[in-house]
Amino acid sequence: MSTRSKGNRGEDLACSLLEEEGYDICARNYRCKFGEIDIIAYKQNTYVFAEVKYRESSDSGYAEEAVSFAKQRKICAAADHFRMRMQITEQSGFRFDVITINHGEVTHYENAFSYVGRF
Predict the structure, then answer these.
(1) Model confidence pLDDT, tens digit, residues 38-54
(2) In whole angstroms, what is the distance from residue 81 CA to residue 102 CA?
(3) What does the alpha-carbon distance between residue 35 and residue 75 come to, in Å, rounded to a whole number?
(4) pTM of the entire structure?
(5) Separation of CA 52 from chain center
(6) DSSP alpha helices (H): ranges in 1-119?
(7) Is the dihedral of CA 60, 4, 27, 104 positive or negative?
(8) Which domains does the chain have, with CATH numbers?
(9) Distance of alpha carbon 15 from alpha carbon 51, whole angstroms
């Protein structure tokens, strides 16, 4: 199975989990010049920008360890782009979650990291 296929499978599992938790999926693989967001979901006036990490084995570490500070900055910049493009007002909340799949076990970490500004 290719890396992209594994990534899609992981994102499918993450979307299923979010939908079970009552979220609406707004976008998958949102890309702009600043970066990419795996999943954008919405629930109770809050937008969730979620990074999905998938690991079949712990040979390269656990999925939770794979969201670096540089990656967080890119996700935040892409989230800013999405919010401006969609004209999302300040009344709507937002947060950054990480969804991991380790050995088939899906875990949702809400508020996994704080907003990281560009400067």
Answers:
(1) 999 999 999 999 999 98
(2) 30
(3) 6
(4) 0.89
(5) 5
(6) 3-20, 69-85
(7) negative
(8) 3-113 (3.40.1350.10)
(9) 11
